[in-house]
């Protein structure tokens, strides 16, 4: 409950927190397993790799850890906190864009999932392990499936867990190679699977030549603060933000799942719970394989 309350408070202050926590958890589990190795700081750690420079949510995990160390010291690992925080991130009530007389609230929408605890924190964190183990936004379906398979995850898991993109924001550099503007402002689609009108909107949000990494765009242009099945509906409109998103619709091996989840949110939620449990179990360390850290101990 302490983790849940910490995530809730942080999400109330910053509605981008849930997306950050989910992404942080993915990047942790896909490299060295779900062992909080992504939290460790220092030269040559996972966190120092350029692919992880845009990760966020660290302060939320740190806050939860500080509270837990007060009430139950040396008991709950950072790895468990990461898993619980990512699980909780999709459940919460946050302010809607209310224009009338009072503030209304909406559910982020995700299912309540029971996940086991007992993970230990890993002792190894190496930047060289990051790139071969995480999904790039330009990946083909085969490239994504190869990495997922290496983690014990199926093609179905790939489609389901990609639904995490229903929340969160991304930097322009992760998708602006899908289109370009010439000197006269004419739009050319480099990736023809992207809706032209949507691409035109993206060019306005990501000006040509912009190098400011603070510019971000909602992954889901429809309901960016709700964990729902809108992501799959967006894919059907050819408005998946990443090339890796569009790949799910354009391949016969995954298209039917996209259609199913776009038409049935309950099915997506049910399958999300199963796939998230599998994700949270990747490479878990127990016993003498790991430790319970008291904080983010820097590695020098």
TrEMBL record:
PANTHER family: PEROXIDASE 6 (PTHR31517:SF17), PTHR31517. Removal of H(2)O(2), oxidation of toxic reductants, biosynthesis and degradation of lignin, suberization, auxin catabolism, response to environmental stresses such as wounding, pathogen attack and oxidative stress. Its cofactor is heme b; Ca(2+). Its EC number is 1.11.1.7. It comes from Rehmannia glutinosa. It catalyses: 2 a phenolic donor + H2O2 = 2 a phenolic radical donor + 2 H2O. The keyword Plastid does not apply. The keyword Nucleus does not apply. It is found in: Secreted. This is Peroxidase. Belongs to the peroxidase family. Ascorbate peroxidase subfamily. Keywords: Calcium, Disulfide bond, Glycoprotein, Heme, Hydrogen peroxide, Iron, Metal-binding, Oxidoreductase, Peroxidase, Secreted. SUPFAM superfamilies: Heme-dependent peroxidases. Residues 1-300 form the Plant heme peroxidase family profile domain. It holds the Pfam family peroxidase. It comes from the Eukaryota. Binds 1 heme b (iron(II)-protoporphyrin IX) group per subunit.
């Amino acid at each position: 409950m302490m983790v849940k309350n910490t995530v809730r408070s942080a999400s109330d202050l910053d509605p981008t927190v849930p997306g950050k926590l989910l992404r942080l958890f993915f990047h942790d589990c896909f490299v060295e397993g779900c062992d909080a190795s992504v939290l460790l700081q220092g030269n040559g750690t996972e966190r120092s790799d350029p692919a992880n420079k845009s990760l966020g949510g660290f302060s939320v995990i740190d806050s939860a850890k500080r509270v837990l160390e007060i009430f139950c010291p040396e008991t709950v690992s950072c790895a468990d906190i990461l898993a619980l925080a990512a699980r909780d991130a999709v459940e919460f009530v946050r302010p809607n864009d209310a224009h009338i007389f009072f503030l209304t609230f909406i559910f982020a929408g995700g299912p309540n999932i029971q996940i086991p605890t007992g993970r230990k924190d890993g002792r190894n964190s190496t930047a060289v392990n990051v790139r071969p183990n995480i999904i790039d936004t330009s990946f083909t379906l085969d490239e994504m499936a190869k990495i997922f398979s290496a983690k014990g995850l199926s093609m179905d898991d790939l489609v389901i867990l990609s639904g995490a993109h229903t929340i969160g924001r991304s930097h322009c550099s992760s998708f602006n190679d899908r289109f370009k503007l010439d000197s006269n402002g004419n739009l050319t689609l480099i990736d023809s699977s992207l809706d032209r009108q949507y691409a035109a909107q993206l060019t306005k949000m990501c000006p040509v030549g912009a190098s400011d990494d603070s510019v971000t765009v909602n992954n889901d242009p429809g309901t960016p603060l709700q964990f729902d099945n809108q992501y799959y509906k967006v894919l059907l409109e050819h408005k998946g933000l990443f090339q890796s998103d569009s790949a799910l619709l354009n391949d016969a091996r995954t298209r039917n799942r996209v259609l199913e989840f776009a038409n049935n949110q309950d099915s997506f939620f049910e399958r999300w719970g199963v796939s998230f449990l599998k994700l949270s179990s990747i490479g878990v360390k127990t016993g003498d394989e790991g430790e319970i850290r008291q904080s983010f101990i820097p590695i020098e």
